[in-house]
Amino acid sequence: MNNSLIENSLTKSFTYSEYRTKIKSLLAEGLSTGAEQSEDLLNYSLLNDKRMDRLDKTLKISDETLHSLNQLHKKFTFLVIAEGWCGDAAQIIPILNKVAEVSANIDLKIVLRDENDALMNQFLTNGSKSIPKTIIIDEDKNVVNSWGPRPEIATKMVQDYKAKNGVIDAEFKKDLQIWYNKDKGNSTQKDLIKLLQAS
């Protein structure tokens, strides 16, 4: 993995508030992020924007996560590959933002998948461009780990459903969103802390 690709991606990245503003301004024009435009993607984006608004207000970082973050002796950047229409990204990025807000050692940056093909191709999940993908970078711009598109538990839910039904359908997507709502970001926090401690 070459540092110049990471550095180049970081120069094109958004902060969380810039990412949210970008999505909202596109939605105001009836557009979603990404190369492809469709009514479905627009509807997902509108739904996700509301979802992120809600999560920004309601998400809490657990005491356990706070304690672990306070033990970090190194600085990290979370470089996240996402798109506004992606349901998993809408659930996960607000958590990453809260983690970055409470820790002086974590910086959150976001890039759009369709505008960063070379980067995405370095972080495929089982050969696919699954998002959100969180790339964990140290102070020297080295990639120390990557995570995503979902927490471990949700990944297993997806795999089990696919094995049984062959595809991920609208019914399952609904169930997954219900799981995210009940989980309140705790699984994502646990996964991230485990990765940071190992980095």
Shape: globular
What fraction of residues sit in β-strands? 5-15%
Q: Structural class, from helix and strand content? A: alpha+beta
User: Taking all residues together, what is the mean pLDDT?
Assistant: 95
CATH topology: Glutaredoxin
The CATH superfamily bears the name Glutaredoxin
What is the CA-CA span between the terminal residues? 16 Å
Strand order of the largest sheet: 2-1-3-4
CATH architecture: 3-Layer(aba) Sandwich
Uncertain regions spanning at least 5 consecutive residues: none
Q: Number of DSSP strands?
A: 4
Largest beta-sheet characterization: 4 strands, mixed
The string of secondary-structure elements, in order, is HHHHEHEHEEHHH
* Percentage of residues in helical conformation: 55-70%
Number of domains: 1
The radius of gyration over CA amounts to: 16 Å
* Top-tier CATH class: Alpha Beta
- The oligomeric state of the chains shown is single chain
Tally of individual helices: 9
